Amino acid sequence: MSLHDVMSSLPDQLLPLPFHVRLRYYWSTEQRVVFGVLFAILQGCFLCVAFFVQPTGGMPEWAFLLSIEAILSFILGCLLLTFIIMLRSRLMVTEANIMFWELGRRDIVRWSEVKLFAILKNGNFEVASATGRVELRIIDKPKHALQRPDIPFEEYQRKMDGLLLLIAARTGLPLMDLRDVEER
User: Fold this and answer.
1) How far is it, in rounded angstroms, from Cα 72 to Cα 43?
2) How far are the Cα atoms of 18, 86, 96 from residue 114, in angstroms, in the given order?
3) d(CA 88, CA 39)
4) pLDDT in tens, 122-143
């Protein structure tokens, strides 16, 4: 058995395929407090504006103010929900390719086409071919991350380590360090 055969079989044992991880937006206590304060300030500002605008059509003032608040709450709620949904991402690795979904966009790179495996300035990893690229953000400090995996963090770390080994073994490419490369 050659070294390549050993390296090729090792990641499959560490990371059985297909493999997927979902990252979801996480609200820390501080973020909840800040959002609550901002929401209250916005509500107060709109309530003041609505208070000075005179209702028309014989509508009672309290009904007018309540309808303005309901409309504002609905709009802010929709914006918040959109923000939370947009921050979800998903990584899927199969026998044929590696895929990453984020912000409504799907990036796919086929294993047979990979030309680059690199670590970037921002600490993310990139797998790229001539036709596509997948940038992998690996969370190393879950306490400070905006996104958190949907599996226990220790399992997530183990799977991400296995994924990096799998990428190196499947592509046969060395990990290029592009953290010190200047952009043109």
Assistant:
1) 8
2) 18, 28, 11
3) 23
4) 888 999 999 999 988 888 776 6
